[in-house]
Amino acid sequence: MEAFGVRFFKRNFLKSSEIDLGAAVFSVETRRLRDHSGQEIALRLRSREVLSVLMRYRGETVTRSALAEAAWDVKTVSDDSIAHCIADIRRALADDGKQIIETVPRQGYRLVLPPGCRPASARSGDTARAVRSSEGPACDVRAPAIEVLPFEDLGTHGAGPPGLRAVLAEAIVTDLARYPEMTLMHRTANSGTSATPKLVWTLSRPRADYLVTGAVLSDGKMGRLSIRLVSAADMSCIWVEEFDFDLGELLALSRTIGRQVASAIGIKLIEIAEAHIDRGDVSAMLIENAARSRMIRDPSARSFQRNVREQDIALERYPDSAWGHFGQALALRTGIANGWLTKDVAAASARAEDLVARALALAPDNYLAHYALGKSLAGKGETERAIQAFERAAALNPSSTMVLVGQITPNLNIGNLARALELIAIAERINRRGNKSVAYQKAKTHWWMGASDEALRSLMASPGLTDGMTKLHAVVQLELGRVERARAALGPWLASNPRWTLRAEAMAKRAQAMPSPMLERWLSRLSEAGMPP
């Protein structure tokens, strides 16, 4: 931390994103605990996730299954695993009397704030209450400011230190600048060779919310970039990653590295949108970001219904912001495509189309508005126009994995398997750690091609299974001749969705313009796996 020229002092005050829990203070933004002297209290990662869920629904009973789904990203986890996390949290909070984390017999757990302890601003689940109770006219909060600092030289040979660092920094800055979710600031270095370059400051600029900083090391043949996203408020590290590259291919790889970094930071910013809302920084952009993050974490009917409610708030309070318009359009199209919205589908589809048109009029260069247009056109079966809209979104922001993935189904629908595989490869290069949407599209593409073994491998490599992946898992197992495994895979999902039928599944797939031969194959397999008509 000395590179930042910042000294840390113990502090006893609370920030707006922190909640006093008596013996400890919880940061909504970083999901970490500290004592009142400012020292961090050790807490395992999974325990922090459990505490974050309990905090979000403080005062309410959270069932064990809900904790498992939110903190482990799966529907079932052993009671012992959850109990260990609860014990870990109670130890960190000095909650020997179990008065902060209460056990609700045969149900789950409930977090109760100690008497006199201050809650944070309304949690994101109470967005409507927070918005309607706020005083004065609506004022859209500015996008978080990101400042890219010059990278530190840890010893570079073969390519001059300023040149090597400048190439990487320029690639990252270029791709970060394509995200309207953030305001980008950049400090440039002079052309000298000093390991500590002279900084050129932009005058009259706003204070940064987050800093991107890093260091470069090379031996003349290979290079390594270490990069961090840091909260400017307290210098806590939010995200860190390393990238290895061949110096001989630096110019070609710098574009990939730039997009990987931009994608990771973009994803991280939407992940922490709810923390901003929790502390009262409500805006149409943050509501949309939180909705997008929620759907990535928990693609379910529950998330869809919550997103629709909160996007209505954004539309009501910020009628001249494009974010609420395309945010609600995306929520409606997602609900239709997944079968979560079954009534007045035609009216919802028409409304989504109108919202997209308004969003494009308000923000013609916002990549998400064009992405929403692509989803709307794809849902209407206008596949070629949908692909054009997705390609426009990708041109505006080539670092977005979501936009790349959005193009895959339309290309499959017109039989362009080569393009679908190309898009998957690009998405995997940008999102190195992988995510569920990429894994699902990869598995679906292999199933489409008749390569069920490859499809199964892609599913098993996913960090978790969504509803769509669970159905695909059953279908793939059947095509491999494993009837019992297929029924075992689909059975728990059917038990938790007792009203779902083949008819509902057909409606959802038609909303994605799945061609008739593939739809018949899909429904036939699900019928064999036990889905009722």
3D structure, described in words:
The structure is a single chain. Among the domains are: 2-120, Winged helix-like DNA-binding domain superfamily/Winged helix DNA-binding domain (Arc Repressor Mutant, subunit A, Orthogonal Bundle), CATH 1.10.10; 145-271, Rossmann fold, CATH 3.40.50; 283-397, Tetratricopeptide repeat domain (Serine Threonine Protein Phosphatase 5, Tetratricopeptide repeat, Alpha Horseshoe), CATH 1.25.40. It contains 22 helices and 15 strands. The chain is α+β, with helices and mostly antiparallel strands and 533 residues long. Mean pLDDT is 81; it is low at 1-14, 119-125, 128-137 and 189-206. The radius of gyration is 24 Å and the shape is globular. The strands form four sheets. Strands 8, 9, 10, 13, 14 and 15 form a six-stranded mixed beta sheet that branches. Helix 1 (45-56) crosses helix 3, helix 8 (284-297) packs parallel to helix 10 and helix 10 packs parallel to helix 12 (367-379). The protein has helices at residues 45-56, 64-72, 79-93, 127-133, 161-176, 250-271, 273-278, 284-297, 301-317, 322-337, 345-362, 367-379, 383-396, 401-406, 408-413, 417-430, 436-448, 452-460, 467-479, 483-496, 502-510, 516-528, and strands at residues 18-20, 25-27, 33-34, 40-41, 62-63, 101-104, 108-111, 145-148, 152-153, 183-186, 188-189, 199-200, 210-218, 222-231, 237-246.
